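Problem 3 from the worked examples.
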Amino acid sequence: MIKVSVVVPTYKTSVEGLARLVGSLERQTMPASEFEVIFVDDGSPDDTLQRLRKLAETHSNVRVEAIENSGWPSKPRNVGIELAQGEYIAFMDHDDELYPDALRAAYEFGVANNADAVNGKEARTTSASWGMGTYDEDRPQSIGRTDVHPLIPMNPHKMYRRAFLNEHGIRFIEGARVLWEDIFFNVLVSRHARVISTLTSVPYYHWVTTKGSGSSTFVKHGEDFWRWLPRVCQSIIDELPGEENRLQREQLELHQYGNRLVGVFDSKYVTRTPKQRRFMFEQAQKLQRDFDFARLEGRMNSSKRVRAELLRADRQDLLEEICVSDAAVPGWARATTVEWRGGILHVSSDVTWADSKGTVPALVRDGDRIRKGLPTEVRDLVSAEATDMTADVDGITVSGLVRSRRSRIAWALPLESDVRVEDLPDGTVRVSATASFTVDPAAAASGAPLEEATHWDLHVHARFGNSSTDRPLKSTIPASVTLTDGRLHLVYPNDSTNATIIPGGQREAVRRLTPESAALVDGDLVLELAGHHDGAGEVETVVGVWAAGASKLSDRPARLRIADGAAQLIVPGVGAGTIDVRVGDRAPGGPGAWTVRADKDRRILERSSRPSTDSTPASKPAPAPTPTPTLRRTVGRVLRRFGLR
């Protein structure tokens, strides 16, 4: 029985991208006999088809179909639907990857809930907080959610029940250039689906984005953008009619109006040519009028509403001024405390909103209201409701995330925040926040442990008005470890002064903790390490050592001992003499090595002139798991391209 058909449209697919995709399919926990992979090549002029056919020769569950060039992924996907035999169909782009347990988990979740569609947890290379609003918990039924549409993100990286698609004739719109074909498709799914399930606890899909991978098709000043956007808006109205569909319809309408139509009037808008700016302004005006989008503006934040009202008032000059003066101001978090307690990391931080020039959100006090600071002419033209920032301030959200550099998956963390509103003597208002969260390495991955020996970076996602930013948590707090249940976990400020955790990080701990003193105990070198630590016990590790007169560094077995808040590094069998040890070289200001030498009955610890032989910055991602032998060289090249090796 074929449980899942994976449909992949291809066109001029890179060797690296195909290797990544195939490698992820080969690593699936679902047996290969239970899923099929259907590649539909859209008339590639290069050797893509030949490489696919060669792949099929060695993979019994792979089928390759070639069609004449259609110019878009829609027709290849539709051909794949017709060929599919699986109970569910999963769509992939030709250079992305599935997480190892994706097919098994999504299929079983879909079957258990009789789901017409399964929206599995997706990560995006360039965004730590991608989709986090959707993927908050496992939801057997997501239809009826008031906070977000159940199919957001509206891409096709999901699993759909094949019989459901065929019963309702749901297909992708075909053509040479069909922008947002995935939205049209998912709008039809929204219309007919009775159950849409959201799978959060198991990572499903990695949308791989790299420098230069974005499509020039979606340029906001292009004619295609404005030819297809009204069709998307009309499709939402046509396919989701009536009161019973009102929630989903207005969720999607607001997304198009706020993010795509009004959203084009950002700081980049004023950098375009006068002709491009006028074209965008006129096209946006027409859509605003044709779809009566003013009815949705009460749900917008102040910045978007001001722009919408200026657009309707035909004031392009003032709108351009606002794009500069009311640009989104990012939120930043800086750790104030980072400490382990009982094996759990406790973090407190301050959150401020300011750009690189020190610009803060322009807010003024007006009685019991907080208003956006605007030029007089703008303030006099737009409504009082548009300038009212009180709801935006009340709606500030701060979220904590822990994100893997290896897999790019991110997990939400338990967090408490407190927004502070400060009235200044000049009548302006300053907004900031505090945020406290915890990280339990044994359960932070939606109840599962974080992958060990992997860098996990702490992020804070701050949302305020038109600003939604996720940034690494800044930290200069020295490294510390916890040793609980025989497992050692490390937290430290990385080379970019951002907070990073390594579960099972005893090797890196040796290089992040600064030695303070040395002693010789029964022939063993004992180094006292700086910092306050948690837990008790010993774990094995290694330390880099240069023996006396040696020029080459070698790893030597060692132990990390934690007791009473202190940490020791024990290097057995050192004995008398002088050696250089590589300890604490990655701590801020640390030397390449420390020299330990005997002076009568004492051990003297002093900085060494030796540089560290490992020049790889610790802030770079750890290497990915070893790929299958047939793909090792190719995957290695693509990992280096992404900075993963």
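Problem 4, a separate protein:
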Amino acid sequence: MKVLYFIKKRKNPISKIYIRLWESKKIDLTTSTGVQINYNYWDSKNEKVKNKVEAIDKDFINTKLLELKKYITETYNIEFNSEITINAEWLKKKVAIFFNRVDDSQLEKVYFVEWVKKFVENAPNKLNRGKKLSPRTILAYQTMLNHLLDYEAYKKTNLKHSDITLSFYWDFVGYCRDIKKLSENTIGNIIKYIKFFCGSIDFEGLPVSKDYKHKEFVKPKEQTDDIYLTTKEIDQIFNYDFGDNPRLDNARDLLIIGLNTGLRVSDFMRLDLSHIKDDTIRIQAKKTGKIAEIPINEQIAHTLEKRGGNLPKAISDQKFNKYIKEIGQTIGFDELTKGAKMEIIDDKGTTRKVSGFYPKYELMTSHICRRSFATNLYGQIPTPVIMAITGHTTEAMFLNYIKKTASENAEVLRNFYKRSAEEKGLKPVLKVI
């Protein structure tokens, strides 16, 4: 297959440059590139503008012709082998797309944000592995789109697919850090979706920059300092008497259920008695759609018993996060702890997570339930059992999620050795001094 350029001489010396797509007897297509040149400056043998001083736009035209030839060759190879019809209309459209000569209904074929907009609009009807995209995923796409729109407004530009280069990456990441004050993990999620959309655009055979595949075009990330509650602290919460404060008593009981089930707040807040059978909680996770089964332990059983077999009253996530901070403060979880919490960062009331050392109760949110459950059970029961309940799909993800310190992991191993020795009737022979 060859891509050729030629001009048609006319009385007027200004002539259009034509592109020809030819492959033996199978394909012979021609269309205008829309680029014009004085035919006296055209080098027919080398199919480019001659190196003449008078041809002031020679470098621009020659560069564009090389890029167009590369683009047509690549898209032809992809689409011909994808059983897409290659005809004169196909060639005409590809040339129009390359030069950004599209009408409003085709903007997404040239402009990155327009592509994302159209994807988000159609997202409710799209499938991922046979299932509809979750509202949470669609919201993440929309959030990413909003940040891109803000970036375009800030830069006074409209990003094309070909603009998503490594230079764009560094500039955009810098904008997110310095102007938007976003966390590294938030920026990482945005970059993840940008790479996803670049891959989709690339698959469609549109002229997208290949820089999204570069090893430096990566998700920024940071080590989070999320906290968890130890079993001792959980016992303190369970045993504390909130009898004179029904509001905190109810929130404490919800917290105990969350801490002992490993369920997300969106799941344990909608628990009802229909989810409990034979001393087991069985519920379909709202986020993943997977079924979780968790046996009821003594703390949950006591919570149900004190309420006459009923569950505590569900409350909003916002109230839950507020009330459990009050619970932690009341009990005395006030040791300075490294973590991050939402704080106002400017006069406009913008809030962002800010890392630092805070009283532990100030760092308590609904996420502490699932993380404490996983962290406290790690090393006590097989990891796959915990993962089946928490919904982590890989052990790497799970190990990144739990918050065991090196010394705590050493203690788990020490206890394992001790139990193994006791089972074998052995006694320790070494004493650490």
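Solution to problem 4. The first helix runs from residue 58 to 80. Residues 104-213 form one domain.
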